[in-house]
Amino acid sequence: MSIDFVFRIIGMVVMAILGLTSGIRLAKVANGDPALWATVLVSLGALIGLVLTPWVTTRPVGYLRNRIRQMPAHQLVAGILGLTLGLIIALLVSYPFSLLPEPYRYILPPVGAILFAYLGIAVMVTRQQDILNLINGNRLLRGGEASPAASRRDERFILLDTSVIIDGRIADVSQTGFIYGTILVPRFVLNELQHIADSSDMLRRNRGRRGLDILNRLQKDSMTPVRITDMDVEDVREVDDKLIRLARQLSCPVLTNDYNLNRVAELQGVTVLNINELANAVKAVFLPGETMEIKVIQEGKEVGQGVAYLDDGTMIVVEDGRRYINQTINVVVTKVLQTAAGRMIFAKPETTG
User: Fold this and answer.
1) What number does CATH give the domain 155-281?
2) What is the tens place of the pLDDT at every residue in 186-237?
3) Domain 291-349 carries which CATH code?
4) In the structure, what pLDDT confidence band is assigned to residue 331 with cuts at 50, 70 and 90?
5) CA 166, CA 303: separation in Å to the nearest integer?
6) At a CB cut-off of 8 Å and minimum separation 6, what does 125 contact?
7) Where are the domains of the chain?
C-alpha cells in the first residue's frame, strides 16, 4: 500500500466528515432536508478528498524532496543559512511591528517573516561564491590557509556525456589544466556506459569498456576534480534529455562531441563545450609561403600528387609529391582550405638552389 493511497483515504474521510457537518448546518439555514444535504455534501467532500489530497500533501513533499536531492550541497547549505538569517531578522523586527495599531500588528509580523526569509535565501544563494571567497580572503589575512580547491577555482561544474567519455580526448585535455571547475559524471551516464560495455555487439562492448577505462583514468590522473553524482531527473527517461535538464538546474555547461545533443542543448539555452570544435580551434595555422617538414605516405587522387598528414590529422596534398612517397621532405604551403570536414593544406616540394 503506497503512502499516496493512504493519504487519499485520510483526505476522503476528513472531507466527508466536513461535508456531513456542513450539510447539516446548511440544511438548518435553508430549511431543507438534512439527510439530502448531508448525503450530497458527504459525497462531494469524499470525492474532493480522494482526488485532491495528494496534490496538497504527498506531491509537494515529493517535489521538494527531488529538488533538494538534485541541489548541490553548497547551494543547499547557503539556502539554509539564508533562511536562518532571514528568520532572525524577522524576529528582531516583529516586536516593533506588534506595537502598531490594528490591523497592522497582526498582518506585518507574518508578512515580515516571509519577506525576510525569502530575501535571506535569495541573497545567500545568488552571492554564495562571493561570500565564500570573502571568508577565504579573511582567513588568509589572519594567517590561515584556504582550502586548495577554494583557492584555485570557483565552484563551477561541467557535465560529461557518454560520447565524450568514450571519445577519450577529455582525459588528455583534463591533464592540461584548461578545464576550470569540477567535472561531474551523473550516475545515469555511468549506467549507460555499463550498459554499452555489457552489449552483445563486439564494437559497442569495446566502446563501452574504453569509456569505463577513460573514466577510471580521469579519476586518477586529471588535474581537475572528477566526481560521480547521484543527481537525477526523475520525470525524464532519455540520457540526453536528463543531461540538458540537469545542466539547466545547475547552470553549468555540457561537455560533448555529439552533434545532436549540441544543437538541442543550444536551443534550450544550455552552454555546450564541444571537443571537436576545440580540436579544430587548436590546430596549427599555416600561411601560404611557409615551409614545413612532412613525410609523404601515399599518392593523391590527381596524377603525381602525394599525401601527408600532420599530427592533428590535417591532410596535406603535395604537388608532384608521388615520387617522394615514404620520404621526409620540406614543402612550401601554397594554399589553405577550411572545409566542413576540416582543414586541408596544399603544398609543393621546396626547391633548393
Assistant:
1) 3.40.50.1010
2) 888 998 999 999 988 899 899 999 999 998 888 888 888 888 888 877 777 8
3) 2.40.50.140
4) very high
5) 39
6) 75, 78, 79, 82
7) 3-56, 155-281, 291-349
